[in-house]
């Protein structure tokens, strides 16, 4: 048992340590004052987002990018609230070109269908996807444009953070996303990109067509971002980059309850078995086994089949290496204030992640008022 434990924790330390090393290798990108050239089609699927749309639409109005160089495509996925009315009112009052589309369902994945529907209507060369519960920074498109002009890229992964609120559930999710973003950036730094977030993801329309869109992944409800990233990396990894810029950070909302958080994470976990990227599979396995090891160590200590000293050693090792990576993310995302709750999140997370992993094997989930089977 101790030999297996040593191998798992050593693998975990090497993995997270490599992400921390890679995080530093991805240098921050600074926006420059050059003439904008890139034309963007911003795609935003939505379903029952009347509560979140006002903030999103206001942030669209505040975008500093020339209005003749971008369009906003909002795709209504059978909303049952006032979302469409809000958007129609916005269209009549805003100087931004906004088009409201209805989703054309052809697969088991509503979001992939929505993005495909919008790309068929998109007029511009670059696609950027985001979500209806997001707030866009005013220099968002400007930063993408400069990055595109200065780099030979066809696919861009960009940063996402949760909006801070004064409660532990929100803080727990911020810490979790900081670790995911750290792994995302670190993966690019060691030339093993395997994660991205559809709330801030860009690619050329021609690339989407070359990759045959979401073909091969439509039976999986989520994964509109990661599966496309896998295809892009496989085709030409040199044209896939991470945009590490504080002016490109998209703010999104954390889940309001533990129930919706668990449903979200089961939805995320359900796609992992279909990953084609070996490094992504390896990372997921090592992280899962490390968290499972911590859970079992607690149980074995209670049963007195493992010493408290060994439990403490395991906790200290994992605590230290996780802290090292998450602290780097917290600095970049300017969310250092959540680190004072790191210890509580650290103790809860292994039990949370193991539960989600097990639940994703046996149960479906509910999302946006719909039920999805395993």
Automatic annotation (TrEMBL):
State if Signal is listed as a keyword: no
SUPFAM superfamilies associated with the record: Nucleotide-diphospho-sugar transferases
Against Pfam families, the record matches this protein to:
Glycos_transf_2 (PF00535)
TM stretches of this protein: 282-303, 341-365
Q: Which GO terms describe its molecular function?
A: glycosyltransferase activity
Q: Which UniProt keywords apply?
A: Glycosyltransferase, Membrane, Transferase, Transmembrane, Transmembrane helix
InterPro entries xrefs:
Glyco_trans_2-like (IPR001173), Nucleotide-diphossugar_trans (IPR029044)
> What CDD domains does the record tag this protein with?
GT_2_like_e
Q: Where is the Glycosyltransferase 2-like domain?
A: 41-209
Query: Hey, which family's this protein in?
Result: Belongs to the glycosyltransferase 2 family.
Name used for this protein in its record: Glycosyltransferase
Q: Which organism is it from?
A: Aestuariibaculum suncheonense
């Amino acid at each position: 048992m101790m030999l297996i434990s040593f191998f798992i924790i050593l693998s975990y330390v090497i993995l997270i340590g490599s992400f921390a090393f890679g995080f530093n290798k991805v240098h921050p990108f600074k926006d420059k004052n050059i003439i904008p050239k890139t034309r963007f089609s911003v795609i935003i699927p939505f379903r029952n987002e009347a509560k979140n749309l006002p903030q999103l639409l206001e942030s669209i109005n505040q975008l500093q990018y020339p209005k003749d160089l971008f369009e906003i495509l909002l795709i209504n996925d059978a909303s049952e609230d006032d979302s469409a009315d809000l958007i129609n009112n916005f269209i009549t009052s805003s100087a931004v070109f906004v088009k409201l589309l209805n989703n054309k369902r052809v697969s088991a994945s509503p979001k992939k269908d929505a993005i495909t529907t919008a790309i068929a209507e998109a007029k511009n060369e670059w696609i950027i996807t985001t979500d209806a519960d997001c707030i866009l920074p005013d220099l968002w498109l400007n930063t993408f444009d400069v990055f595109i002009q200065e780099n030979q890229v066809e696919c861009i992964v960009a940063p996402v953070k949760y909006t801070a609120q004064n409660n532990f559930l929100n803080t727990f999710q911020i810490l979790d996303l900081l670790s995911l973003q750290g792994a995302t950036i670190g993966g690019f730094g060691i030339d093993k990109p395997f994660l991205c977030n559809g709330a801030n993801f860009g690619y050329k329309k021609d690339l989407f067509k070359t990759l045959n869109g979401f073909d091969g992944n439509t039976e999986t409800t989520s994964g509109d971002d990661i599966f496309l990233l896998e295809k892009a990396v496989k085709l030409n990894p040199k044209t896939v980059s991470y945009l590490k810029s504080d002016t490109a950070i998209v703010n999104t909302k954390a889940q309001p309850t533990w129930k919706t958080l668990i449903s979200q994470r089961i939805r995320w976990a359900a796609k992992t078995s279909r990953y084609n990227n070996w490094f992504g599979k390896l990372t997921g396995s090592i992280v899962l086994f490390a968290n499972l090891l911590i859970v079992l160590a607690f149980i074995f200590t209670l049963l007195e089949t493992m010493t408290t000293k060994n439990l403490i050693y395991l906790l200290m090792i994992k605590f230290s290496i996780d802290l090292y990576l998450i602290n780097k993310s917290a600095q970049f995302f300017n969310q250092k204030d959540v680190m004072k709750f790191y210890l509580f999140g650290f103790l809860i997370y292994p039990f949370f992640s193991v539960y989600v992993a097990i639940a994703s094997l046996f149960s479906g989930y509910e999302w946006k008022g719909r039920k999805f089977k395993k």
